[in-house]
Structures are given as structure tokens and as C-alpha cells.
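Re: weekly structure request thread

Next one in the queue (315 aa):
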Amino acid sequence: MYKIPGHHHISMITKNASQNNHFYRSILGLRRAKITVNQDDPSMYHLFFGDKTGSPGTELSFFEIPPVGRTHRGTNAITRIGLLVPSEDSLQYWQSRFEEYGVEHGEITEFSNHTALLFEDPEGLRFALLVSNGAKVEHWETWKKSTVPAEHQIQGMGTVEITVRRLDKLANTLTELFGYKEVSRTETSAIFQSIEGEVFGEIVIKSLDGPSEKPGRGSIHHLAIRVKNDQELAYWNEQVRARGFQSSGIVDRFYFKSLYFRESNGILFEIATDGPGFTADGDSIETLGEKLVLPPFLEDRRVEIEANLKPIEEF
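Done, posted below.
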């Protein structure tokens, strides 16, 4: 059986690409690794932020939907994203930085057994900065042009929080289907790791009854988990279907291949290959994220697509 190495990316909804771009580049100091469009609806931007190359395990991606309303928080949703930073000194740095830029944040606390600083982006998307204690995605690379000093830069995704009515249903999917290890449990939550002892594949499930979340700006659309290659993706496609879930089948996203399915609480998962990556379209590492790039099958619609997109302001 193949092992899931960790998270691949996580995708959210934003109302305003320019505001989103400013927050994640200028305040969080991430690299904008790709400006492209939603391949299923090219009328909307799809932005990717991450490390130097936007490598798997570091990617935060956003679909811009200008008419979208606010999120009505509830259960059966992905509810918080952990981001890794090197040290407790880094948390002090980020606390000061958030105060300087007026970012909504709390005091240094604990989250999923990690020293943490909770904060929200301008649209209410919930995060936790987590002290990595040396753990980071193995291929993470410093972005030298970041607005954040190298010793405090975000090193990729850590614990992802998922809130559901039926904790055991999701727990069984993680452990029995994907081989995650349950590492702790209370009456209302449980922690799972794709690689035991490693936070970059960690998921905390919280049990909460009540109405389901109604997504809007600042909500999380799906979590993608990593596989190495096409062969592994084909294997997981068979396993997902054998367990009775409806799979999208394998979809070629050009920068990676993937499949999608919803587990029993309605949480949308994607399984995505590590490659070929964001240089597959001819973009060089030096110029990643500087211009709108379309996969080849959309290139002949460029004029139409660009006409429907509002230019992203840099401020």
C-alpha cells in the first residue's frame, strides 16, 4: 500500500483578488507562484501562493468569485489551516507584524498540541501559525524576495482542522482508506497524521453538531493530499471507488493530475500528484507568478479570458 506523504495544497474562495494578493504576498511574505484561471470556469482567477517554486505542501490557492457573499460558519467544513514557522521567536515576530498591519490575531496559545498564534485574513479565513520544531516539507525553499526575513518565513502547511458532525466517519476514511495514524483523541476531537510524527500531513477532526457551514468569501473549498506520481494516483482512484465513494476520475490539471471525492460528511478531498509543477508551462523559476498563464487547452481563448478578468492591482 502506498503512503500519503502529506498535504499537497488547500483551496479557498476570495471575493477580491487584489486584496487577497496584497495580504498573502506583502503581509504573509509568500511567493505568488502562479496566476492562472479556474480550469472548470475560466472567468475566475486561480491564484497560488507558496514557497520559491510553489512546491507541494506549501500551496495556498484561491478562486476569485466577486459576487460571493459572506461565510456562515458551521459544521461539516474545513475550518482552520496551520502554517509552519521555524521557532517561538518567529511567533513573537509575527505577533508584532500582525499588530503593525492590523491583522486580526490572538495571543500565543496551543493548537493541536503545538505552540501557536491564531489569526484571520481580511475575509475571515482562519489560520494558526505553528512552531515547526524543525519539521517542514522536505523540498521547501526560501523565497529570497519575500517581505519576511528568511528566519521567520512560513515553511508550508501544517495541521488542517476539519469540523464535522460524524467524527468517526471521517476518522475511518483517513485510517482505513489512506492509512493515517490516529495519534490522540478526546471526547470531541482526534488528531491524525499521514506520516507518524510529522505535522505537515496532520489533520485534526473536531466534532460539532448543528447546521452545515454555508461557504462564502474566506471559506475553504477543499483539501488536496499528495501522491508522488500517476501510478499512485491510479491506485488511489481504485481504492476510493472500492470504498463506495464517487470519484471524479483522474483529471489533468496540467501542473499536476488529480481526482476529487466527498467523504460521508460532505468534505471535499482532492488527491494530487507532486508533478510536473508550475514550470511545466515554460515559466522559469525566476518569473513564476508574474503574468497570467493558461494551460495549453485554454490558450486559444486567451483574448476572451483576459477580457473577463479585472487586472490584479499591486499595492
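The longest strand covers residues 41-50. DSSP finds five helices and 16 strands in the chain.
Next request, please.
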